[in-house]
Every structure is written in C-alpha cells, then in structure tokens.
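Exercise 7b. Backbone tokens:
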C-alpha cells in the first residue's frame, strides 16, 4: 500500500528586526568623514579663519576697496596656482614657473618693440614660446626619466640667465622699453589688465579670469576623461599606462598648461606696468607650489582639487595685504607663509588619515 505525502503550506521565518549588520567595506561613513575626504575642506576652513582674524586685527580689511585689492593679489597667484596644482595632481611639479612668467612677458615686450610689431603679434609669439617651454619640460621628463625637480631646475636656471642676458643685450638695460604707445596696446590691456566698477569699487579683470579658470579646471578634473587621466598618472604611472591611459600626452600637456598660465600672468604684468624687469620672478614658483599644497594637493601626486588652490591663493593674498592693513612689519609675511605651509601639510596629513580610518 502506497502512501502519497501531502505538501503542507510553506512556513517562512520573518526576518529578524534590528539594524542590518555591515562589514567595514559596506558601512557608510559618517558625513563628517566624507567631507574630510575632500582635499579642499581643510583649506576652506583655514581661509575662513585667516579672514576672520584679519577682520578684527586689521579694520581696513572690512572696506570694499581693500577686499578688492586682496582678491586682486590672490588672483595673480591663483591663476598660476591652478595649472601648478593640476601638474602636482599628475605627480610632477615645475620649478621654472616663476621665471617663465617673466620670460613670457619679456618675449612679448621685446618682440613688439624691437620689431615694431602690433602688440598682439608679440602676445601670440609669447604664447607659442611659453607653450614651447612647457613642451620642452614635459618631453625631457618623458625622454630621460629624470625627476621633474631636476628637469625644471635646469629650465629655471636657463630662463633666469637668458632673461637677464638677452634683455641687457637687446635693450641695454635690465628692463624692457615702454610699449604703452604701440598699436594694439589698449585692446590687450582691456583683456589682461583692465578693471571695472562694482558698487563704487574698482575690481581687476584678473579676479574674473581667476574664477573662470578655476571653474573650468574643476569641470575638467571631475567631469572629463582627461581629468581621470590626471589622477591616474599621478597615482601610479605604470598602472595607468597598463589600462590604456596616454601617460606621455597627459604629462606633457600638463606642463604646457603651466606654460599657458605663465603666459597669461606674464601678459597681465606687462600690460599693467607697460614694462618688465628681467630679474623678477625668482622665488614665485615656491609661492605657486605652496598655494597648491595649502590647497590640499600632495607632492606625491594623485590627490587634490582645483578649488583648494583657490582658497590657498586667497590665504596668501589675505596675509600679504592683511599685514599691511594691520600696520605690522611686512617682513613677517614670509614667516606667516611658512607657518601656513607647515600647518596645511599637517592638516592634510590628518585629514587623509581621518578620512580613510574605518
């Protein structure tokens, strides 16, 4: 006799109520830690602290014209700090950036004046020269495998010597001739060194260019394939090459971006003062690098942002002008910069460790 089993109703066990268990890989980090993971958060807080400090220490800072002057000083640093920061994210840095600014300005001034050309011809030839310097730095780096410190140190010394020697040879002086009465000067000045009125305050055009370049650099880093390439080559060049990243193109183009920044700032200096001193620019490269480091970029590459150096440059401008408005000895400026740089490095180190802690 066979017996046919009857299937009973399926019995299901309701899931236990309570918090869902997660391991360290899936746990969602608190909002504070996720914010700390952003490289620009630390410098933003530092910039606010410096601004508030000088609001009380230097009452003239509260005036609109004073703040416009602070932003102007910040913009002349910040425009160069942006491509320098992108280069540092890509794992390299450029010691020739400071004298390259003067080299570009000297090229435009001397070619325009000595050859009696339209000023815009000199401006365009200076752009070609500046991009060529960046191309040379990038090509030497890739071709020789030498550290960017050595390659750009050599370029720094070459440009410094050429700036002085060629200027004396061509003009018989250490400065270029005044080009303010040449064709095209007023139009070029309106692009690179003009100002406009906002509520009775004169605002320099470089502030606008600075913010435009910062927005563009941020978009490139966060929304384009090229931005991914920058982070990849800065993190691990060989791994980036293995997954198809064009390392050679990325490195060389980053150096050329620094050349573009040097050209733009050089044109601003030329059309602001009508002439250029050939011995200037030495030491400015350290200011640009420091602004990028304070802004959260690491010397080891692969980490940083474009917004951070904006706040870093603002801190420089704030301290530089704030000391003057406070009536202090301006010799303290470099000491303040050193303190800010060391503080930024320590904060960045703490931020990284905190943000990656489980």
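Sequence design result:
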């Amino acid at each position: 006799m066979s017996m046919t089993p009857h299937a009973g109703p399926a019995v299901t066990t309701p899931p236990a109520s309570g918090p869902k268990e997660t391991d360290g890989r899936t746990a969602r980090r608190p909002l504070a830690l996720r914010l700390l993971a952003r490289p620009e958060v630390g410098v933003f807080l530092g910039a606010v602290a410096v601004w508030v400090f000088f609001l009380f220490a230097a009452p003239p800072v509260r005036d609109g014209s004073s703040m416009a002057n602070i932003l102007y000083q910040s913009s002349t640093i910040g425009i160069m700090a942006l491509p320098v920061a992108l280069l540092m994210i890509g794992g390299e840095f450029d010691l020739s950036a400071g004298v390259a600014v003067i080299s570009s300005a000297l090229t435009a001034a001397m070619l325009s004046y000595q050859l009696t050309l339209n000023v815009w011809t000199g401006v365009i030839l200076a752009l070609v020269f500046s991009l060529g310097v960046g191309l040379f730095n990038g090509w030497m780096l890739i071709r020789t495998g030498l550290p960017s410190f050595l390659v750009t140190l050599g370029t720094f010394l070459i440009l410094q010597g050429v700036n002085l020697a060629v200027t004396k040879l061509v003009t018989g002086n250490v400065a270029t001739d005044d080009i303010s009465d040449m064709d095209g000067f007023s139009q070029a000045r309106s692009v690179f060194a003009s100002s406009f009125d906002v509520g009775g305050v004169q605002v320099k055009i470089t502030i606008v260019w600075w913010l435009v370049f910062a927005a563009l650099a941020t978009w490139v880093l966060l929304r384009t394939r090229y931005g991914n390439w920058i982070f990849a080559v800065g993190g691990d060049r060989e791994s980036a090459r293995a997954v198809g990243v064009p390392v050679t193109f990325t490195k060389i183009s980053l150096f050329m971006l620094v050349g573009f920044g040097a050209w733009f700032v050089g044109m601003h200096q030329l059309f602001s003062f009508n002439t250029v001193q050939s011995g200037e620019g030495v030491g400015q490269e350290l200011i640009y690098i420091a602004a990028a480091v304070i802004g959260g970029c690491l010397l080891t590459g692969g980490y940083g942002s474009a917004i951070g150096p904006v706040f870093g440059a603002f801190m420089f401008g704030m301290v530089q002008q704030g000391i003057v408005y406070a009536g202090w000895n301006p010799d303290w400026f470099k000491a303040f910069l050193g303190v800010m740089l060391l503080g930024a490095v320590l904060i960045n180190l703490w931020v990284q460790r905190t943000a990656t802690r489980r």
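Instructor comment: Strands lie at 195-198, 201-204. Residues 1-26 have pLDDT under 50 and may be disordered.
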